[in-house]
Write a structure and sequence with these properties.
By secondary structure, the chain is α+β, with helices and mostly antiparallel strands. It has 21 helices and 13 strands. The chain folds into four domains: 24-73, no CATH class; 76-111 and 253-295 and 541-622, no CATH class; 165-251, Herpes Virus-1 (2-Layer Sandwich), CATH 3.30.40.10; 301-336 and 358-524, Four Helix Bundle (Hemerythrin (Met), subunit A). Helices cover 50% and strands 6% of the residues. Strand 8 (278-280) and strand 9 form a beta hairpin.
Length: 622
């Protein structure tokens, strides 16, 4: 709620007013910045001896000092730098091969493998390069390869000098060596049997992991042999085999998902970081990366799946009750009129009706209460969803109002605050609408029945609903100010409207942050059952950028394109530090799947601590 203390001067400019939106960042004056820089240099100077060598008692080498001492000097939020640098990338049909080859080359170079062995290893471990190197250190090379179906000692393909034929153990025919093929495991069968076996496996959808025909042999067949034999007999199936191998980078990869747009845009999104996020494809489709459904934060994916199913199952019941019943003015229960006049008399008939209604079995009464509770949350969810659709139509109207206002003879020419306020309204309205399905399951018995006592549930529900009501009140106020016909206002009236829109935009943004902190820290974190939600972003959903093609897709081999040293710094996927660095930068869950407890934002600012895991390329730009 906006208080008098939060109101700003109507004479302030739009740019000055919008600075309140960045109240989480901390900046130093030029004098303080220079003083801090001198103190840092003095500390580094004190740790060198007269020969300009670093003292043996120095706690940290000079390369570490810049990470530890760079505090309060950050000019932009580090999270935004990391997000824009390595978070989201769009993989198109043209860049899919390049993205796959990038990971293949990392494994081939560091483990000394052939291409099909590297692909087998990556598919088995779901294209997680970092996990492969972690397991290599934990399990060892032999166990890592055997579990993935890679032979430890590839068989010698050269046949016996005295033998010119081989007996196929499938059809038991003696065939020339040239008409037989041997896999890395050493098993040798005729090409006719291999071809039939490969075609069956491809048609069954097992193209990515075709095992050897030998009993109890887990070795994955050489894709070059599969490609050669199948292409000779069925080129169409060979083409399907190639497509399956290419698409395995998306189908078997936890960090890459197809865009769920309809009709399909052909793009996929790759996330380097926490998979519990909401993204926007270049086609404009917004979706939850974890479950590929529509963006539904602050609902968890489990809650949203249950909510969609319940809405589908209960829709006919709710529609019938809405159309055919009216609430009783005394007990507010739905009453069906199945005959007689429209008059409902009071007295004995009402008492008798109440006795009959309330005297039914506990099971029926509980089912009725559950239905009423669902209708309560569903009606509010639908009301805000409908409001969001109606407010989306405001964008065209507001553009017309801005055009009229800019052409007026007025001192006010900057109307960016209107667009910013409208975008803030859309984001906060979306958060508000999905908060009702979250509350339905958070404080119900479907998921967390045994994880909270009745008193704890009531206390947490009151805490959440208080924040929800504050957000709802200010969202409606913001919507009302944006619907005003400000193109007909005087300058003073426009300034007053601008003041309220900017103030309310900041207020609803802060309330959204507080609601998410309450959900993550006070509601979800203490639970035994892990439920992760996508974090709140003041600037909206993360927008994916086009993947820069690093490899020449016209080449058959995995040869990198030559580029300059500056261009190499802009390719984080090729640096060694990105392979062995921290996994899932910015993740909202720990290794056990439990959500981290997010730090609360200090309303008065504070130290902007430098993330020690940020690559040096990013640090140099800050």
């Amino acid at each position: 709620m906006v208080t008098d203390a939060e109101e700003v001067s109507p004479t302030a400019s739009s740019s000055e007013l919008e600075q309140e939106d960045d109240d989480d960042d901390c900046y130093l004056s030029d004098q303080e910045d220079d003083a801090l820089e001198e103190s840092v240099l003095q500390v580094l100077e004190d740790e060198r001896d007269e020969d300009c060598h670093w003292s043996s008692t120095s706690v940290c080498p000079p390369t570490i000092h810049r990470f530890i001492l760079v505090v309060f000097v950050v000019r932009v939020p580090i999270a935004s730098v990391v997000d824009g640098f390595l978070r989201l990338q769009v993989i198109t049909k043209e860049s899919l091969l390049a993205a796959q080859r990038e990971d293949l080359r990392k494994v081939m170079e560091l483990l000394g493998l052939r291409e099909h062995h590297a692909r087998t290893l990556l598919i088995h471990y779901r294209w997680d390069v970092e996990r492969i190197f972690e397991l290599l250190d934990q399990k060892g090379r032999d166990r890592l390869f055997s579990e993935a179906g890679i032979p430890l000692q590839p068989a010698n393909n050269a046949g016996s000098p005295s033998s010119t034929e081989v007996t196929c153990n499938v059809c038991y025919d003696d065939v020339p060596l040239s008409d037989a093929s041997k896999m890395d495991c050493g098993h040798n069968y005729c090409n006719e049997c291999w071809t039939g076996y490969f075609i069956v496996k491809i048609n069954e959808g097992q193209s990515r992991r075709i095992k050897c025909m030998a009993p109890k042999c887990n070795t994955i067949c050489d894709e070059a042999i599969v490609r050669k034999l199948v292409n000779a007999k069925r080129p169409d199936i060979a083409e399907r085999f190639e497509r399956f191998l290419l698409e395995s980078y998306i189908e078997d990869n936890d960090t890459v998902k197809w865009c769920p747009s309809t009709p399909h845009c052909g793009n996929a999104i790759r996330v380097k970081g926490d998979i519990h996020c909401e993204v926007e494809c270049t086609c404009g489709r917004q979706f939850c990366f974890n479950c590929s459904s529509e963006a539904h934060s602050p609902c968890s994916c489990v809650m949203w799946e249950l909510w969609i199913k319940k809405c589908r199952d209960e829709s006919e019941t709710v529609n019938w009750i809405t159309v055919n019943t009216k609430p009783c003015p005394k007990c507010h229960k739905p009453v069906e009129k199945n005959g007689g006049c429209n008059l409902v008399a009071s007295g004995y008939a009402v008492v008798l009706l109440a006795e009959i209604t309330h005297g039914q079995s506990k099971k029926t009464e509980q089912a009725r209460r559950n239905l009423y509770r669902y209708m309560h949350y569903h009606n509010r969810y639908k009301a805000h969803t409908d409001s969001l659709k109606q407010e989306a139509k405001l964008k065209g109207d507001i553009q017309g109002k801005i055009s009229i206002s800019e052409n007026k003879d007025s001192k006010i020419k900057d109307y960016s605050w209107v667009i910013n306020g409208l975008n803030r309204l859309f984001r906060s309205r979306r958060v508000l609408s999905y908060s009702y399905p979250f509350a339905f399951y958070m404080f119900g018995d479907e998921i967390f029945k045994d994880e909270m006592t009745s008193d704890e549930r009531e206390l947490k529900q009151n805490l959440f609903e208080d924040q929800q009501q504050q957000l709802e009140f200010n969202v409606e106020r913001l919507s009302g100010f944006l619907e005003r016909d400000f193109q007909n206002f005087s300058d003073d009236e426009v300034m007053d409207t601008m003041k309220h829109v900017i103030n309310l935009s900041n207020v609803v943004d802060r309330l959204c942050k507080q609601m998410y902190q309450c959900i993550e820290n006070d509601l979800l974190y203490p639970l035994r059952t892990p439920h992760n939600i996508a974090p709140y972003k003041s600037k909206g959903l993360d927008r994916a950028s086009e993947l820069n093609v690093c490899w020449d897709s016209s080449e058959q081999g995995l040869q990198p394109i030559k580029y300059s040293q500056d261009e190499h710094k802009s390719q984080p996927g090729l640096s060694g530090s990105s392979i062995f660095g921290k996994r899932q930068l910015g993740s909202s869950s720990n290794n056990n799947g439990r959500p981290h407890k997010r730090e609360r934002n200090d309303a008065h600012g504070g130290a902007a601590l430098f993330d020690l895991n940020v690559p040096a390329e990013v640090a140099d730009k800050i």
